[in-house]
Specification:
Blueprint (H helix, E strand, L loop, with lengths): L1 H28 L3 E2 L10 E5 L4 E2 L2 E2 L1 H15 L5 E5 L9 H12 L6 E4 L5 H10 L5 E7 H13 L3 E7 L9 H19 L7
Parallel strand pairs: 1-8, 2-5, 2-7, 5-6, 7-8
Antiparallel strand pairs: 3-4
């Protein structure tokens, strides 16, 4: 009986701190996130966070909306260069190339696209933008829930970052927003407890 009481207390404690982490990240980044192209500040770089191009029924809408938002930033002269940062750890799966090709098909010049093939996690993408590609000021492109975490990480590392919110994806069976609570909690642990670094620098 005592075991189950202890287990229950532990679960409740973890859930409580996860919610606190979510609120902390959301509140501390809300003034740095933008929904309209007119309100986005001008910066040299955009950092587009990776997603799988393939969805269950065609193209993954998270991917599509992020690419459209990145192209919108470029064509409205909000950024001069675009870093596409994605996962490329197994043969036949290459988020980075998919992102670059999609942008090129939109009319974005290949010459302004920077490919980061080691964006395995959000932390990897953000930290590598600074330490590998020398970005100290950038606009991060993803959906709002993801931008909150990415901008929080960027600010922790001294990057002058804002987020441009791509259109979100609505689905009754979508668990992405629920999983984000755990992702934000892990981000706090990574930054303040584990001091986790990108897999490759």
């Amino acid at each position: 009986m005592q075991y189950f009481l202890n287990l229950s207390a532990t679960i409740v404690g973890i859930f409580f701190w996860a919610l606190c982490s979510t609120l902390w990240i959301e509140k501390s980044t809300e003034k740095y996130l933008y929904d309209t192209i007119e309100s986005v500040p001008e910066k040299e770089f955009a950092l587009v966070l990776g997603a799988n191009k393939k969805g269950k029924f065609g193209i993954n809408k998270y991917f599509q909306y992020r690419m459209e938002s990145a192209a919108e930033l470029y064509f409205n002269k909000k950024v001069k260069k675009i870093i596409v940062s994605g996962d490329n750890h197994i043969k036949g799966y290459d988020e980075t190339t998919d992102m670059a090709l999609y942008l090129i098909a939109f009319g974005v010049p290949d010459s302004i696209i920077i490919r980061d093939y080691a964006g395995f996690r959000t932390l990897d993408s953000v930290v590598r933008a600074k330490k590998v590609f020398n970005c100290t000021s950038l606009i991060i492109v993803s959906q709002e829930f993801h931008n909150q975490r990415a901008v929080f990480i960027a600010h922790h590392y001294g990057i002058d970052a804002a987020g441009y919110n791509a259109q979100d994806v609505q689905s009754k069976s979508n668990l992405t927003h629920f999983r984000e609570i755990g992702a934000k909690f892990m981000a706090i642990l990574d930054l303040y407890l584990f001091n986790r670094q990108p897999k490759f620098l």
